[in-house]
Write a structure and sequence with these properties.
Number of helices: 3
Number of strands: 3
Distance between the termini: 24 Å
Order of helices and strands: HEEHEH
Strand content: 15-25%
Low-confidence stretches: none
Largest sheet: 3 strands, antiparallel
Radius of gyration: 16 Å
Length: 119
């Protein structure tokens, strides 16, 4: 996050080390693991990064952080795609990232927490 903000000449949030950073993004679709990333123009600042996604079952409202792990069903790597040049406008709207988050692609496999063991 610090490097991404630095690349945009923006400061990281003052609460970066104390408050979880969560964003709401939506694309509505997913790409196949080997599918080409669709984009209209590199002028939109397209980039991608590997992220770890956690897929949960139903998590009751009010679940404490110490109890959350028991709701994890799968862990998967995904290719997160971002149109960086659209983000500043969306941030000013205080509504999340939608136009700047095209479809991500999940890896062709996922693992359960049990398969990872203590790794």
């Amino acid at each position: 996050l610090v490097l991404v903000r630095k690349a945009r000449n923006a400061e990281p949030p003052k609460t970066l080390l104390t408050d979880p950073l969560v964003y709401q993004g939506g694309s509505g679709t997913f790409l196949k693991p080997t599918e080409d990333i669709k984009h209209y123009s590199e002028d939109l600042g397209i980039d991608f990064e590997a992220e770890i996604a956690v897929i949960t079952g139903d998590v009751p409202m009010g679940t404490k952080a110490k109890d959350a792990a028991k709701y994890i069903k799968l862990i998967v790597i995904l290719n997160d795609v971002t149109l960086r040049n659209l983000i500043p406008v969306e941030i000013r709207k205080f509504f999340g990232f939608f136009n700047s988050k095209p479809s991500p692609a999940f890896s062709p496999f996922a693992v359960t927490p049990e398969e990872l063991g203590s790794a």
